[in-house]
Amino acid sequence: MAIALGRTGIWVRHSSIDPETAQELEGLGYSAIWLGASPAADLRVVDPLLAATDRLVVGTSIVNVWSAPAAPVAESFHRLEAAYPGRFLLGIGAGHRESNADYRKPYEAVADYLDDLDRAGVPAERRALAALGPRMLELARLRSAGALPYLTTPDHTRGARERLGAQALLVAEQKVVLDEDPDRARGIGRARVAPYLRLSNYAASLRRIGFDPGDVTHPGSDRLVDALAVHGDATAVAAGLRAHLDAGADHVAVQVLPMDGGILPTARALAGLV
């Protein structure tokens, strides 16, 4: 069973979401919650969110193949599917070389993990990959529902759609700062974006889509920060989200900044605008 998503969802750390917030997000018209920061293999954080809602899809963005072995992840998938049919999407990815002591070639690691999920009966159409570069996008096209690229721009979205083809799922993550003061908003965005620039996979991806080495040098140029953390009033931010849809995304996962300020005020302001 393939999962149909609406236009917008909310990306949030898996430890920072509760059932009451999930209920309100569903009521506001968001169709999915994407759980980041590498949830554990038991995926126990997912059950209460699905139980509290009626139609909302919960996806992982992403389960890390180094820290969450495939066998217990597959067991968790089957548990969730039995209780909440068609409402969970398993996003997986290889994380970062700098964060995983056992790191090897990410393509091979993810392909092996997909082999394990195949053997455990997790359907290809119910999983997606954290794909940035050409090879991983191709793997996503061939062996999953599609791609969950993170820290990208509409230009990356456009190129990803070309590589994935018309049928594959493409969910673009976009950070937003609902603040009309550009200096303050840019400071909030830079605080979130800058740490990623020390990670080789993201730095390479950003250079590949047209940013100069100076842009991606820590802590990031204004040009880079403005693209990766769209800011302004609700109309301006909504336009930045629609740019991904216009570039070929099926769905945009909105990451609200600052992360410690609560997601609901921004989610309320953007509801219905995208």
From TrEMBL:
It holds the Pfam family Bac_luciferase. GO terms for cellular component: cytosol. SUPFAM superfamilies: Bacterial luciferase-like (SSF51679). Residues 20-116 form the Luciferase-like domain. GO terms for molecular function: oxidoreductase activity, acting on paired donors, with incorporation or reduction of molecular oxygen. Gene3D superfamilies: Luciferase-like domain. Transmembrane segments: none annotated. PANTHER family: CONSERVED PROTEIN, LUCIFERASE-LIKE MONOOXYGENASE. This is LLM class F420-dependent oxidoreductase. It comes from Jiangella anatolica. The lineage of its organism: Bacteria, Bacillati, Actinomycetota, Actinomycetes, Jiangellales.
